[in-house]
Amino acid sequence: MFAYIVRRLFAVILMLLVVTLVTFVIFFAIPRLSGADPAAMYVGKQADAATIEGIRQKLGLDEPILMQYWHFVTGIVTGRDYTGGGTTDHCPAPCFGYSFKTEQAVWPVLLDRLPVTLSLAAGACVLWLIGGVTTGVVSALKRGTLWDRSAMTIALSGVSLPIYFTGLISLAVFHYWLGWFGADYTNFADDPAGWFSNLVLPWVTLAFLYAAMYARLTRATMLEVLGEDYIRTARAKGLREPVVIGKHAMRSTMTPVLTILGMDLGALIGGAILTETTFNLPGLGQAAVRAISDRDLPLILGVTLITSAAVVLANLVVDLMYAVIDPRVRLS
Fold first, then answer.
1. Which residues, listed in sequence order, are joined to residue 88 by a DSSP beta bridge?
2. Which among 67, 186, 242, 275 is most buried, taking Cβ atoms within 10 Å?
C-alpha cells in the first residue's frame, strides 16, 4: 500500500510538471513561434511601444525559451520578481503570474475566489451523488416500471437542458416570484444562514445536470452487475436482498461512478463557468470569463493551472478509494 501511494504521488508530480510544460507552451512558446508578440498580448492592443518593451523585460520574454520555462516553474515554488522599466513587482510563492492589467499577483485573486467555487462544487456534489446514485439504483431494481421510465425521462431532460436555462427559470420562480431563496453570495463567516440560502439554487441547478448523468450511469452499471455470477450466488446462498444490493452489487457499481466523480469534481474546482455566471457568483469561473473578456492572460493561466492540478489530485484520491469501495482491487 505504501509503495503504491509513493508511486502514485510520483506520477502526480510528473503529471503536474507535464501540465505546466503544456500550459507554458500554449501561453508563451506558440505565440512566439507563430510570429505574435507575447508581450503585446499581455498588455492589450492599445499599449505603446515603450509599455510593450517594459513588459517584455519584466516577463523575460527576450530570454531563451528554456530559461523562461525555468523561471516559470521556479516562480510557482519560490516566487518571482518582475523587474523592468525602472520598477520591480514582487509575486510571492506560489506565483501563478502577475496581472499587469490589475497590477496585482494572480494567486491572491484566485485564493479570494476559491472558497466560492469550493462551496458551490462541494454542495452540488453531495446533492448529485445522493440523488443520482439513489435514482439509478432504484431504476435498475425496478427496471421497466413507471418509476424507471419517469426517472430516466427526467434524467434525459436534465442532461439536455443547459444550466443557463434551468438557472434562469429557478431564479425567476424561487427568487423573484416566491422569494424563498436569495441570489447574492454571502460569506459563510459573515452570515451562515444567508450563505446557505443564497447557494441553494446554484447547488440544485448544478446538481440537476450531474445527477441526471450519474443516474443513467448508475442504472446501466447496476443492471450489468446484477447479471454477474457472484450476485446470483449470493442470492442462492439465501442472503437478504438489501445485503446483496448494499454489500455486493453497490461496491462494483460505485467504481465507475468514482472514476467520473474524480474528473467532474476536479474540473468544477477550476470553476463552474455557466453556473457562476448565471447566478453572479464571484468564483473562479466568473474570474475566468472576465479574464477572457479583458484578455488578462496571467489570470487565465492561473485558472488553467488550478483546474489541471485539481483534476490530477482528485483522480489520485479516487485511485486510493478504489480499494476501500471494491475489495477486489488490490493496491500493490
1. 83
2. 275
